[in-house]
Amino acid sequence: MRNKIFFNGQSIVLTWMISYIVILLLPVAIGLLLYVESSKTLKEEIQQANDSLLKQVREIMDNQFKTMEQLNFEITWNVSVQELLYSNKYEAFPKEYRYDAYQIARILSMYKTSYPLIDSFYIYLNKDQSAILPTTVRTNSFAYETLHMSDAFSFSSWQAIVTRSNFKGFIPMYRIGDDNKLQKTVAYISTYPEEHNKPLATNVIMVDQSRIIGAIQNMEIFNKGHVLILNNENQILASNSADSLPADFPFDKLESSSNFYYTDSNAEKYEVFNIQSPLSKLKYVSMMPSTVYWKKAAHIRNLTYTSMAISLLGGGILTYVFLRRNYNPVRRLVHAFSKKQTLQSSKRYNEFHFLQEAVDSTLIEIANFKSKMEQQRHIVRSHFIEKLLKGKLDSQIPIDEALTTFEMKLDRQDFAVMLFVVDKSEPFFERINHTPEEDKWKLLQFIIMNVVEDLISERHRGYAAEIDDTLACLVNLTMEDGNSSKLELLRIADKAQTFLSSTYDINLTISISSIHEHLANVPQAFLEALDSMAFKLVMGGPEILSYDDLQTSTTCESNTGYYYPAQIEQQFMYAVKLGELEEAQMILTEIMNKNFDNPGISVSLTKCLMLNLVTTMMKSISETGDIQESFFIRNPKLLDRLLCSKTVHDMQLQLSDMLEQVCVYTSAKRQHTISLTRQKALEQLVNEVNAYIEHNYTDANLNVTMIGSHFNRKATYLSKLFKDYVGEGLLDRINKVRIEKSKQLLGRQEQSVGDAAYGVGFNDINAFIRVFKKVEGITPGKYKELIEK
After folding, report:
1. Of the chain's two ends, which shows fewer C-beta atoms within 10 Å, N or C?
2. CA-CA distance, 730 to 688, in Å (whole number)?
3. Is the pTM of this model over 0.90?
4. 390 Cβ partners below 8 Å, 6+ apart?
5. Cα–Cα distance for residue pair 291/283, rounded to 1 Å
6. Is residue 176 a contact partner of residue 144, using CB atoms and an 8 Å limit?
7. How distant, in Å, are the alpha carbons of 47, 417, 560, 647 from that of 554?
């Protein structure tokens, strides 16, 4: 048998051998493919890597250059600088020109603190050929000597740069550092608009090349090639190499191609990558030696040959070892099953198919056996529970053995019985189509029994069975207190009733017996549950019936003489307090029907009942916040007419009329209270919003959306509430607060318009001027001049 299976054409040995050979040849094929495509793939990857690294350089440098442009913007539009360059006051007060220039120098010192990444900056004034530096003002010659003087950068070259017209851009320059050493620097030159065809001034902002190169020196491209930053005129602003570009470098290709090859005069080949910044319009160029690439390609080629050789040698050995080792357990399994099961297929057979058929056959037999045993066990257990509840157990069979046989554990002291009767099952049956009626009832009973047993088993032990078209459940309680056990049974009944109704459209009536000690009293509990269910069928009542509650209710009715329980009184009081006339009339009708459907109640007891109902109305009025007797003092005839009634019918009519007037009164009182509460809440919300604006007006992100998010309300809805109450929108309120605060800042002499704008939360000085003029009718500059005068 074993040899027959091993050597036939469909044996798993042949399948495994083919699989191992395919797996063995796979790395060989991959190696060949890598060898053929390595050059092309490597080239693409290096191009992508260089492009990515160059973009990183661009992002880092653009942030630096953006900082220079930002500083230039703040200096250019500084109010004091604009006044110095374009104001006519110096014609009348020429001496103030020098004073204002020194004031601007003080302002520039503040900018120096705010921009630590800027190495040096100044404003060159063409009017008096001087330069305003942070903290000082110098003549042009003195400024050149202290800032730029070198053989590589002459005074005339410097003058040509700072006196040119209509220029804005980056150029290479030299400057003298704090250590008196000459530094290569990148300068951002920005000239002011001309006046009378003469340049007024020029901003010069410088960042040393060493700072720029130091920010990106850890990138891989610095270790293998050259990185350069060029301006629009192809001047080198920064480079990681001291050598300049060859004279024959093809600058024109930088405009037309992002990648090309270049061979220098020494026959050294380079691969050139370049990208242009969309912000600063600068070119970022990387030159990589081509020999670097082919070293990697040679390494990959050698690695490919080595891996192919190892794969062929090692794979052949492992194929033989694992093929022999993996087949041994399969062969033993086939040999074991073949002794008890014959092959049903032809001679050409696969071992796994044989094992699958053998295992499937065995599992099917086991499942059929367990299914039959479970069916019989369920029927016998239900018969045992029925006899236990009815007290008809066979005395010859010990009960402990029976409980063990049916896996039932009843080791607690307290027992109770719950009965379940289906009131309405049509909706459930309509959901089940193409099923016989008998099977529908079995499914319904199965669902109820499983749900009840699961709910009880959470804390206790419960076993359900079908008894005479009724479902009964024996409950073995773990609670020690009798009242707690009763409440626990009511909770389980309510939960089961709610779940079955909402999930399966099964409506139940549930009866619960008293709590009994010892298993011998279970038949008595079963009779009590039957009596409770009979009360429901004969007299009607709630859907959950407790034997103890029914006994108490019967005793109370015989003692008081009329029906008006505390629960009904609470419901009646709640309906009257809310002014729900319909609900109150329904409860009143129920009380009347309960008391007067059965003859025998006297006129005196009837008057007591009526006065009790009137007392309930008084309590309801008192809970609305008014004086208890105020309503009846204003309406004395209502009580008089009720007390003078001679018949029960008259009392009912008077009581209904009184109920209608009381409900109208309480409803109006309730609506008034709700209106006052809403007005107070709205006033509190407006005060909180105003306080929030006063506290956060300096935050530039303060807007209607931010306020709405803080108060967990929609921004549009909150703005509407605010406008309805105050008469102005939230945005107008924010602007008014900011303008009032800015007026206080403008009153200080050292505060400029820009400082006031930023101090109250405006990012844009033009927006501040526009809002200020809208609110105050004048510009902030005019306002500051007025208050200074």
Report:
1. C
2. 13
3. no
4. 467, 523, 526
5. 25
6. no
7. 95, 21, 10, 27
